[in-house]
Amino acid sequence: MPPPPPQPTTTEEEDGEDAFTEEVLRLTAFFRKFYYNDLRDIILDADASKLHFPLVIEFAELMDSDPEFAGYLYSSPRDFLPILDTAAQRAQSEMIKQSVDLKREGKQKKFVHVRIDVSGSPLEFPETSPSIGKVRVKHMMKLITLKGTVIRSGGVKMIEFERDYMCRKCKHRFSRCPELEAGNRINLPASCPSTSSRGCVCSSFEVIEDTITCHDYQEIKIQENVQLLGVGSIPRSMPVILMDDLVDIIKPGDDVIVTGILSAKWSPDTKDVRSNLDPMLIANYVRRTNELKSDIEIPRETIEDFEHFWKEHEYTPLEGRNLILRSICPQIFGLFTVKLAVALTLIGGVQHVDASGTKIRGEPHMLLVGDPGTGKSQFLKFAAKLSNRSVITTGLGSTSAGLTVTAVKDGGEWMLEAGALVLADGGLCCIDEFDSMREHDRTTIHEAMEQQTISIAKAGLVTTLSSRTTVFGATNPKGQYDPDESLSVNTTLSGPLLSRFDIVLVLLDTNNPEWDKIVSSHILNENFDKKDKINVSEVKWTLSQLRRYINYVKNQFKPVLTKKAEIVISSYYQLQRKSGTHNAAHARLMFRNEVIQLDAIAAILCIESSTTTSPIVDNIGDALHSNFTNNPDEIYKKQEKKILKKLGLIEDSP
């Protein structure tokens, strides 16, 4: 038996206790000064179903008040986080003693957990907030912050948190906590930890009954954002341990920011397989960022540039719109209709909720059907770059489980793992080679596209996940496209699935010598006359500027229909039953909060391009050969007059 460790002298113990008490008193004063109202709400909370109460504090405030303790908290969080909890309990006790109202109406809560919010503090720097793939040994046992998407969520379990033991010889009582790193196993000391002057070397202990403390426990897995990775990089993931008030507050597909202690646990024992230490994060604070997932930081100067741009084009709004559209997939010449449809799909409409709670989605879906070489995949990739939350996949490499949710078994327990549509919640899901998907796999996305939810019942797990996703698909026709047959026959896609796409553009590579001449001239100009290929006014619409513009108009404008636009849409609806989503999207694109007649007619022109023959406007269905015009506002007036006549809203002039 190894000799017992040297025991500290009485003077060392007293000094340590004095330092501990002094720190608790300082933190108690800190809580009462900055978080009095939060503690008061906890004391007055009469919800009997709650056992654990979070007290969220800002690390930046703690640094200003007690920088020394903040430094210790970062470097040794496992030792100093319990001091914060003790101080919170002491602050509760003092507040109740000094307040008659709290003493009469409130009650001191047994479990108050201090949660650290690192927003606006140095802990947001890359050194203390690395990406999941850059977590290294130097971060071990430090307080770090990780950002990612929840891809797997386990069930809520009960875990033994603390147990009291008693020495059989000297009757000394002490507590022990299970080690998460060792598979929740309790390791007893080699000898009695008694600090009496006589000492005790007994190694026999017994459990004291009714002293076991249990806590709620849940294990999830988060994955780093694919958008932040380079080409060829594999997204890394990490398990996260949630306890007490943190359990069951997030689900697969949620974007989260997790602050906690980086630790490691031994991998399961497997025959002939070497055991390794796998990193894991023991969470202290979890913040869902679903409402922030589409936000991009937009400087005030950029917003002023947008406003100035539209003031310049106040009298030629369509010319200004076309300048923006030219910057979408600029390597492809022309295809005005496709670029307009891509812009409207990315911007999206406004979600409506009626009195009964029924939701009408605002996210449109788009499908490109075309011959090989017409640029479908290029548009998909560029759209994914414009959306700051996107997932790209192909039909051949996707299954129903990969697109929606799959149930996986981990450590003897079934867990849900999010698929592409759930991971793209609030963003864009691009599916290339849509026709390569099996029919069974296609039917699984019907609910996700229309109801924007995914209902599952797998391995005893029954739940509904959110999938507010815009689906952008591309497919080849089945053999030679036959204009006399329906779209369903030409693409082998079922009618119910096609009906969920708000706009379907057909790109047919027909023999057109004039168009071929224009395109070849454009390609030659691209190579030999690069100085003049971009107009001075177009330089500002770079990829980053387009991303900012799309994000800004999506969040800033909630367009409503004007009376004239409503009449046009109502008349058109009698001819073709289509969604009104693109009207609001076009109004947002034009930087306004009203859907006017121009927006309604532009949406009609875009929808009419879904078919190869248009019942309203002649020659509008050839999306592949649609080009940007020199005087879009003048041409619009002629198209407007023709459409209004077809709809019967104006009479023919004699």
Automatic annotation (TrEMBL):
GO biological process, one term: meiotic cell cycle
Function: Probable DNA helicase that may play a role in DNA repair during meiosis.
First-listed, main subcellular location of the protein, grouped into a coarse class: nucleus
Gene3D superfamilies per UniProt: 2.20.28.10, Nucleic acid-binding proteins, P-loop containing nucleotide triphosphate hydrolases
Signal peptide range in chain numbering: none
UniProt xrefs under InterPro entries: AAA+_ATPase, MCM, MCM9_N, MCM_dom, MCM_OB, NA-bd_OB-fold, P-loop_NTPase
Keywords on record: ATP-binding, DNA damage, DNA repair, DNA-binding, Helicase, Hydrolase, Meiosis, Metal-binding, Nucleotide-binding, Nucleus, Zinc, Zinc-finger
Catalytic activity: ATP + H2O = ADP + phosphate + H(+)
One GO MF term attached to the UniProt entry: zinc ion binding
Pfam families assigned to the protein according to its UniProt record, in alphabetical order: MCM, MCM9_N, MCM_OB
Stated name of the protein: Probable DNA helicase MCM9
Domain (MCM C-terminal AAA(+) ATPase) ranges: 320-523
UniProt-listed Enzyme Commission number(s): 3.6.4.12
SUPFAM superfamilies for the chain: Nucleic acid-binding proteins, P-loop containing nucleoside triphosphate hydrolases
Species annotation: Urochloa decumbens
Subcellular location: Nucleus
